[in-house]
């Protein structure tokens, strides 16, 4: 019975994505938002990522959760591209690895680290919602379920330390630490001029506007033009917005 249960868990936790940009790929999604397996998760972001990537490009997935967008990017950039997924929650990082392996997408590289403004160590506050973990210095998740010390890195340090290929597109979804991630990649923004997709969220519109304004001002100083992407959520409760930043012509 135990073996049968384990086999059933593996089968049901590795569904084939039904639609969207990841359609036909398998994803280890047990306990995650069911929209991942349906393929309907944040459709405007799926479409934007797919439209901005081409074969041979390089995608950085900062706050990768279970790797849904990493799978989409890996499909788009192909065998000559690279995908670097950063996810500090160990069970999520492990899920990315399982999805990578079952889909034979060896170009996905997983870093079990939090990305921010400095390299070192920090306390991560875990949440029952798999994508809701936050660094203790940023905020406290409303459904907090535990604490964990994690390694932190900056993208500039990670690129230099691991000899990573320069980014074409960076997606940032880090539950309040967005500006810290940007501060830790100033060299990459200056040297490589990647496009950036950044999620901003808050309980109120005023809170969302404040966060977005800080991000936009930082990116403007770095020589980027910023626009809002189509809404991925109804925003009738917790508010979520996605920003696309593209380097201005010089």
From TrEMBL:
<dbReference type="GO" id="GO:0032259">
    <property type="term" value="P:methylation"/>
</dbReference>
<dbReference type="GO" id="GO:0008168">
    <property type="term" value="F:methyltransferase activity"/>
</dbReference>
<dbReference type="InterPro" id="IPR006342">
    <property type="entry name" value="FkbM_mtfrase"/>
</dbReference>
<dbReference type="InterPro" id="IPR029063">
    <property type="entry name" value="SAM-dependent_MTases_sf"/>
</dbReference>
<protein>
    <submittedName>
        <fullName>Methyltransferase</fullName>
    </submittedName>
</protein>
<dbReference type="InterPro" id="IPR052514">
    <property type="entry name" value="SAM-dependent_MTase"/>
</dbReference>
<dbReference type="Pfam" id="PF05050">
    <property type="entry name" value="Methyltransf_21"/>
</dbReference>
<keyword id="KW-0808">Transferase</keyword>
<keyword id="KW-0489">Methyltransferase</keyword>
<feature type="domain" description="Methyltransferase FkbM">
    <location>
        <begin position="61"/>
        <end position="224"/>
    </location>
</feature>
């Amino acid at each position: 019975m135990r073996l049968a249960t384990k086999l059933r868990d593996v089968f049901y936790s590795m569904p084939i994505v039904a639609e969207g940009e990841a359609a036909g790929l398998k994803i280890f999604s047990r306990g995650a938002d069911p929209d991942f397996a349906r393929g309907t998760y944040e459709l405007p972001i799926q479409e934007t990522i797919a439209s901005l990537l081409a074969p041979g490009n390089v995608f950085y997935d900062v706050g990768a959760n279970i790797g849904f967008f990493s799978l989409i990017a890996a499909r788009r950039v192909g065998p000559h591209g690279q995908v670097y997924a950063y996810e500090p929650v160990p069970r999520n990082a492990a899920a990315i690895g399982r999805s990578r392996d079952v889909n034979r997408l060896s170009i996905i590289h997983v870093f079990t680290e939090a990305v921010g403004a400095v390299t070192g160590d920090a306390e991560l506050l875990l949440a029952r919602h798999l994508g809701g973990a936050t660094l203790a210095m940023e905020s406290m998740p409303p459904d907090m379920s535990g604490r964990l010390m994690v390694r932190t890195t900056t993208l500039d340090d990670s690129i230099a330390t691991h000899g990573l290929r320069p980014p074409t597109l960076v997606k940032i979804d880090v539950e309040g630490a967005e500006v810290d991630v940007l501060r830790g990649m100033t060299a990459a923004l200056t040297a490589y001029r990647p496009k950036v997709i950044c999620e901003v969220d808050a309980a109120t519109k005023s809170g969302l506007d404040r966060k977005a304004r800080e991000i936009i001002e930082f990116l403007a100083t770095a020589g980027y033009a910023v626009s809002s992407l189509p809404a991925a959520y109804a925003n009738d409760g917790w508010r979520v917005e996605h920003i696309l930043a593209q380097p201005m012509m010089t």
